[in-house]
Hints:
- This protein is mostly beta strands.
- The chain has a domain at 20-69.
- The chain has 1 helix and 5 strands; from the N terminus they run E-E-E-H-E-E.
- The protein has one helix spanning 56-59, and strands at residues 21-23, 31-39, 48-53, 62-66, 77-79.
- Strand 2 and strand 3 form a beta hairpin.
- The model has no long low-confidence stretch (mean pLDDT 87).
Amino acid sequence: MKGQFPAVLPLASLNGKNGFKLDGEVGGDFSGYSVSAAGDINGDGTSDLLIGAYRHTSGMGRSYVVFGGPGVGGSGLVALSE
């Protein structure tokens, strides 16, 4: 998407073309507190994301890799539980 994002971006307006929302696996796990570009982990030519949830499972934490590609977030939502 070219251009700047507005100062306020309502999550309900995300449709997969203008962005997507990441839903954590467990409520209160702080999914998305840490997000980093992970390079191309699976070698498909598309950049991937590394998402941290430091309070998952009684504070043990968990990391997720979200593989990039044209179908990611197509509905406006990526559920980390999948």
